[in-house]
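User: Can you predict the 3D structure for this chain?
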Amino acid sequence: MTAAVARIACAALFVACSALPAPADDYPGRAVKIIVPTVAAGTVDLVTRVMANDLGAALGAKFFIENRSGAGNTLGSRDAAHSDPDGYTLLMSSATGQVLSPLIYKDAGYDPLKSFTPIAPYAEGSVILVVNPALPFQSVADLVAYAKANPSKLSYGSAGSGSVPHLVAELFKSFAGVAMVHVPYRGGALSIQDTIAGNVQLTFEASSPLLPHIAAKQLRALAVLSAKRIPELPDVPTMGEAGYPAVLAASWTGLFAPAGTDAAIVRKLNGAINASLKTDATRQALARLGNVVKGGTPQDLTALVVADIKKWTPIVKALNLAPQ
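Assistant: Here is the predicted structure, written as structure tokens:
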């Protein structure tokens, strides 16, 4: 090949490559799967359904949810981390999957910071302590008094070993000086169902799935774990007001992609999410689930994870938690 022919061939190749669409230009060109590492009807699942509807409407493709629960959210999170970084498999997660379980499980199968590309923080809700209403407890003080007089007679359900409900319950036990039996489930919805049925006496869970059951008097709320009382339950005191200010937790959600996902795809998803969070319809939909909007940049989501790792690491070590 002569030098002139080579130059022509290179020029033609450059023009052809320049004509190819950028990775995000036609994204999404097909359905996008969002892995939710919890059972259906749990907090992460419920808020993800709001987001999936908004993303589908904004980007013109179907966003569907695949629930993969188990092992403190690690099963679904691991699957997402090992998926192709093409933007067609995403992960909606929380502090349970991205912070606590990797601290508690010796080998979660992924690194919360290295295995994922952050997309956007999404929403935040409170955590609530609820009991079966057949029990005589009308306050946290009533619960603590009974638990002290009857060690290990009360059992509490959680969304799984390493979940936020598990950790805050153990934190509560430590500060209250009580012994209660932990019963882990594959998700918060199952823990709630068994608390209603009376198979366990209480649970700590996010506000999203609890509020309808509290309104229907299937569960009794004793305290919220936020710094202030929440509008949906103005008569329910905070855990601080009940005497345990260190038992504080929030339930946040954020969208992630496998590490290496194209930055242009991340920008497209982030922009659509933040635009939806400014609409009254989405704000109201999340409010009905006891959540407020967060939104922000990928860097904001990373900062949220890093802050929670810093917050919970000494607590996990002090409580000597292990998978059950």
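The CA atoms of residues 195 and 201 lie 6 Å apart. The first strand starts at residue 32 and ends at 36.
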